[in-house]
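To the team - heme C complex, inputs and output below.
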Amino acid sequence: MSKGLRIMTKKIFFFCTLLIAAVLVEANAFELVAPAVNCSLNDGSVMVIGIGAKGSEGVAEWDGGKAEFKISNSRFNTTIKLAPGKHKVKFTVGGETVDAEWNIGGKENLFTYHEEVASNSCTSCHDPKNPPSEMEDVSSICYECHDSFLSREHVHGPVRMGMCAAGHSPHGSVNEKFLRVPPLQLCTFCHEGPVKSDHPKSSDPCISCHNPHGSAKKFHIK
Ligand code: HEC
Ligand code: HEC
Ligand code: HEC
Ligand code: HEC
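Output:
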């Protein structure tokens, strides 16, 4: 195994461990899943998605406003109404708090919801009977609406493994294409960078030459 691949394998292992850890804490801990804790939003009707202990009561408080919600399933969503401008919103669920800072109508770090989430169609991806931790085969869910990449001649590793949610945040994000992190950071999360010394010298983003899902050419060259 080459050094680069060894490092990459380690990182993928680390990434999977993180995912599993996130799934394990799900049972009790309250966590905000969307939108990002610090972002701008176009609309003051903010759909809040989170996880928390089944049956617990939740409270959201912001400059004078207050909303209560019940977590009937470990996966929940609630919509709170905020006026234009900046707000600090404090969520309290079962003694745990999460602080968010949302700028309604702001431009910086603008969060966009995935269309299916914006239209409240949770069940187009989630089986209401199963918690998200028991979601199987994420890519086949995505491919119900999006064209599959698997027929491309050279399919990128994580895509081949069905790890769509490793690159994309399924509910939405502040990054283009709902990426978890900006494109350059995304590639260097798993790759040290190109390994070969004859790799084109360029400061262009990796995706200007490589297709992140795969292509007809070797190394997923566009
Ligand atoms: C486009 C598909 C899709 C839609 C629509 C969707 N989800 Fe999800 N959701 C996922 C996937 C995939 C995961 C698991 C992958 C991940 O986030 O790591 C997930 C995970 C979750 C989690 C757990 C997150 C975590 O970090 O453990 C919660 C809570 C959740 N979804 C709530 C919702 C709610 C509420 C809605 C509707 C408002 C919704 N989802 C709509 C795809 C979707
Ligand atoms: C029930 C249908 C449906 C499912 C399932 C679904 N999506 Fe989507 N997705 C849409 C629609 C509709 C749009 C907006 C129109 C478009 O850009 O195709 C969209 C847009 C996107 C975009 C932005 C595309 C762009 O060009 O800006 C990404 C990325 C995306 N989805 C990823 C995913 C991932 C990852 C999954 C699986 C976790 C998934 N989607 C599951 C319907 C779906
Ligand atoms: C989640 C981890 C992960 C991320 C993020 C990731 N890759 Fe990969 N990449 C892999 C894996 C796994 C392989 C497959 C290694 C194998 O099959 O030998 C791979 C293979 C490749 C290859 C082919 C290498 C070869 O020698 O055949 C290229 C090129 C590549 N990735 C570019 C990128 C670019 C560009 C990005 C950012 C858009 C990116 N990768 C993001 C995990 C990742
Ligand atoms: C100017 C276009 C261009 C850019 C920008 C670019 N690449 Fe490449 N990359 C290529 C080409 C062309 C090859 C195929 C080289 C060959 O045939 O040996 C390649 C090959 C690779 C390979 C496989 C061979 C190797 O050197 O390990 C990896 C991995 C890779 N690129 C990763 C990246 C990453 C990560 C980035 C961003 C930091 C990036 N590339 C940016 C053009 C580019």
